[in-house]
Each structure stands twice: as C-alpha cells, then as structure tokens.
Specification:
The structure is a homotetramer of 137-residue chains.
Chain A: E1 10-15, H1 31-46, H2 51-56, E2 59-70, E3 79-89, E4 93-103, E5 108-120, E6 123-125
Chain lengths: 137, 137, 137, 137
C-alpha cells in the first residue's frame, strides 16, 4: 500500500454516530467501509459521476477487492476526516486509496486500497466509456 | 395494539449477531426493525410474494407507519423468535402485528404494528391487484 | 401525535448515504431510527448529557416505545434536516418529538414520537437524578 | 492469500436479508464484513471464547487488517455458507481465512484474510494468555 502523502483529490469530514459503535464501545470494523464508500461516492458526485444514476442506466460500479489497515479505534464523539486519491489501473480498474485521520490530532486511524470496476450487462466495461470518468483518468 | 395470542401465521428464529449490539451492549433499537422486516419478507415469500421481484415489476411495498414497544433488551448470544400475523385494513393497507419472544423463556421482548401499502407509479394501489395477496386477504 | 410547530429545541442536517438505501432505491425504514437517534444524542450532548459516558457510569438511556409515520421516501443524494423537541412525561419518562424535513423544500418526510427512560442497575430511575437533565425538564 | 481447501474448522449458513442489499440490488460490500464477523464469533463461541464476555473482562479482540476479494454478488433470496480456518501468526496475531460459497452451487462468492489481535489495557497481549485460545493455537 502506498504511503499517504499531503496531497489528496477529495476529503470529507464525519462524526462518529453512537449506533455505529459495537459492544466494545468502538466503531465496528464494517462501518469503516461505509465511511470509505460514502466518501468515494461524494467524491465521484463532485465529478458528476452519480453512482445511483449510473445504476438506473444499467452501469454498476462494484468493488473487486478491498484491503483495510486499522491503526486506531474510533469511538463515540470522535470527529475524523476521510481523504481519497483515485487513479486508473489498466483500462478496466480504478484504484481508490483512502485514509481516515482523527480530528483535531490528524493521526492516521485507518487506510484502505479499494479496487473498483464498472459492470454493464454483467460484463466489465472500459472505464473511459463511463460518462465523467474520461476526465478523471 | 392488540394483545398477542397463541396463534400466528408465521414465525422465524434468529440469533443476535454481535455487530447488532451498540455501545450499551444491547441490540440497537433500529435493528429490531431489521428483524421485523426480514420476518415479514420471509413470510410473504412463503406465500409467493417476492419483495425484490415486485420492485423489478414496478411495485413497491412500503411502510406508512410503525409502532414498536420495547419490553426487554436483547444482548450478545440471545436467541429469539419473531412471530407475525397479517390482515388487511381496507383495500389499500395491510397490517402486520409482530412479536419477538426470547428463547427458551418465551418472554415478550418487543412487539410492533406495521402499516404497509403498495405503490405503483408513485400512487397507492389496491392490494388485491398484487399477485399473491388476494389469497392472503 | 402533536402537530409540528415552527419552534424546535435542536436541529441537525444530514445527507443520505448510498449504503443507507435498500434494493427499492430508497432509504430503508430502519435507517430513519438511526437518523432520529443520532439527532437525539447530538442534542443531549449539546446539553452536556453524554449517552456513552452515562453508560460507563452505569446509567443507560433506553427506548421504551417508538412511533414513526413515514410520509415521503428519502433517496440517494437527498439532503434533509431532523428537528427535535423534548419534554418530560412524569418523573420517569422523556418524550422526544422529531421531524424530518427534506431540503431545500422543507416538506415533511417523517415524524416520530420516542419514549425514553433511564435505567440504573436494571431499574428505572428518576430523570432529574441524571446529571444535566434537571435543567432540561 | 491461500487457496481455499476442502477442510475447514467451522462453517455457518446464512440467507441474504433484503435490508442488506443496497440500491444496486446486491448485498452492500460492508455487509460481507458482518457475515465474516458473525461467523468468526460463532466459531470462537463454539470453542468457549466469548467475544462479549471477554470485553467485560477488559480484553478486546480487534481487527488489525482485513483483505477481501469479491468474486460474485449476493442478492435477495440467496443462501450461502461461510467457512473459516484460523491459525496463529506469532504470539500476538491470529489469522482467519474465510470463504463464502453460494448455495446450492458452492461457487466462491468472496474470500477474506483477517488479522486479529487481543488488547488489554490498550496494549497487545499474548493470545495464549486468553482463556480458550491455548487449545486452539
């Protein structure tokens, strides 16, 4: 996994919601994937790539692989920021590198590398054929 | 809300999953709606009413109102059973009365009354026009 | 349920996150309870009543009853605001009346009435014995 | 990641619940982590290692790293089985290799490799000091 840098294409701030914590009093491991996804979708939407609208057009953006390193635990009351960089890997795959930093300390809480693909009629499609992606790649 | 009886149209057994518990160590209040929904959909499927398939045909079964009384708290390791009765309320509404009992004690944990409606093209539709419902109502 | 008014004790703005939508393309009915809870807890925290901290002190705020009327469906991309009023009902119960309005239209999406109680050592406790509540009630 | 074999230490069967599907009509990527966790905890409980009870004793089992490969999409109505193998990696880390196969076809849906650690008083602890683990490792 790449080392994180000081340069990101997008970032989004969150607060932990109490229902996201499990019986250990920390945010459940699966919820981090929710945070990562919401940040990716908001980033894409800022580039006029609408995950929900694409689905109605028969194009599904799906995840092929995800790796997450958990460094610190988020808990009730915590604020944090999720940062993302995206780049293509060949004509069919997009890679999202995402980082969660707590606030105001800016310590690394978790990082992920997500491999996404576009699917149309059940088959992988070239990303530059998806409206909006060509400008990103 | 009706008193619960000894006669139910359907029942489904569950175990609490640890991720469903929140920082108080008990199942979060919203998760009970997941349990109730999964029981309703499994009940309807047993009557050949397929929630997901109806959506692809342009018919959405949605909830207009829900009331829940929480009597006991479910926690890690608990097993329980969800029981359901359904009946029509006029031509447009179906009522689900559902009860959660813990196991093996059979004590009442929660009960709900859910009002459901069918929507087609954004408008309420008569339930007996939905394939499978006429036999139920 | 009371009619909603123009006066609220607290409000919090949200955006729908795509993972909160179910296969019908609308926010799942249980997720509204997440929105309502997060608004209540943020409201209480603004009054120095900390849900998570109370738990570590042996006091659990739990829900005894909830009623929700669903008026409109939230979907991907929607923004909305949750407003809340709270008042006591006798010495043991607090009532939260909450309303979701979509943005920017301010149409009523859903409303709820939540009955909360405080529990210590498994028994209901007087709310004015909970630090922070006496100023609210 | 290891190739999956025909030999597993534990398996648990599930059905997709409709609320686990997102607006694409498939199970959301984060929900797979719920399936994996519930299978791990049920496996550990079968060995008398109780995730919730350990927390009350001041020991938290947490995830340091997770890798997931998504091969096929689960959707409404699908049944599947989650299989797990666990082995130690040094004195501090346990590795869970988990596989989801759909039913009745037994096709591989997803696989994960999860690195877990035990934490006591905020510090990593040797796994063989946790009651129940010594027999497993």
């Amino acid at each position: 996994m790449h080392l994180f840098t000081d340069s990101y294409q997008f970032e989004l701030e969150f607060s932990v919601r109490d229902y996201e914590c499990d019986l250990q009093g920390i945010v459940n491991n699966a919820v981090y994937l929710n945070y990562f996804e919401h940040t990716r979708h908001t980033f894409l939407l800022s580039k006029n790539i609408d995950f929900a609208k694409l689905h109605t057009e028969g194009i599904d953006l799906i995840i092929a692989r995800i790796e997450v390193d958990y460094k610190l635990s988020l808990k009730s009351g915590d604020r944090f920021i999720v940062r993302v960089n995206m780049f293509p890997e060949g004509p069919l795959r997009m890679i999202f590198e995402q980082y969660i930093f707590n606030l105001p300390d800016q310590k690394l809480v978790a990082q992920t590398r997500v491999t996404g693909v576009g699917i149309k009629n059940g088959r992988p499609m070239k990303l530059d054929a998806i409206h909006g992606f060509s400008g990103l790649l």
